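Bug report

Summary: structure tokens for Aminoglycoside phosphotransferase domain-containing protein differ between web form and batch submission.
Environment: batch mode, default settings.
Steps: 1) Submit the sequence below via batch. 2) Compare with the web form result.

Sequence submitted:
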Amino acid sequence: MNSSISPSEQLQNWVNLQLPNLAFNINLISGDASFRKYYRVELADKSLIAVNSPPAQENNPLFVNLAKKLKQAGLNTPEVIATDFEMGFMLLSDFGDIHLANLISSKNYPSLYQNIFPTLNQLQQLPTSEFDLVDKYSSNLVQFEMSLFNDWFVEQHLGLKLNTKEHEMLNSAFEFISNQFQQQPQVLVHRDFHSRNIMFAGGDINQLGLIDFQGALIGPITYDLVSLLKDCYLIWPQDKVTELAETFRQTYQANITKEAWHKWFDLTGLQRHIKCAGIFSRLAIRDDKPNYLKHIPDVMNYIYQVCIKYPELTEFAKLIESKLQLGSNTK
């Protein structure tokens, strides 16, 4: 295609080739925390979703492979109508505009989450051997994700430099957290299973649709559950979150002890939130997406509340109180 025209024009021309002799309107509906951009293609009788997903940054073949395999397994994923992996273009079926985030409230969150639990369990029960394109959530990746905390949140966002002792303390804390990943049963992990990536087709809570699963890995069994219940964009009372996590264990993983389950839940969530503090800072500084900064105080509160529960993380909690200037927000 002609590189002198904009990416959105290139995408529109490509969509036109996929829908010959059909009139349509195409409009940007969202970008997200990645490099992807989504467009709604309005036809006379239906709508579709066109995606511009740069191949240098996004694993589009994995998304397509998973969309088909998950659908074959009975999960509701977008139908892949057309692809151009070289350009990074995809044409998908349209689930509509209703995300979990649009419907959830302080009154209905326990019932909505429990309505989602069967789908999450179904995802976790899939044989990992059938997903040969999906990598394992390696210790190196777990550690790299947590390194974003210091590189982007502490140094770039807060403008602080940790001393040698503090670096050693963080490294020790991160090693403790990473070890918890490897101790858990390993399942297919969506890896971004939260309120903005769970959709209800036509607004029907019984028509749950999964999107944005191109980052999937084989990883710890509590990862997607804690992503759901300790959402960076939604905050619920800690005791209620614990109750819901226990409900999931009793219903689907009763063979795992309560003590082990909740420790894994805490520390897997901690790794995710450490990563998110770094990613949200990077999105603001590198990618000019400052809106994510407003979620950092809640993310830091999640981090702090777990750190004060475990002796191995006491010094990390003290660092948050004393040097990261968030102690007043985290108590």
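Above is the batch result. After comparison, the two runs are identical; trailing whitespace caused the diff. The chain has two domains: 7-93, 100-330. The chain has twelve helices and nine strands.
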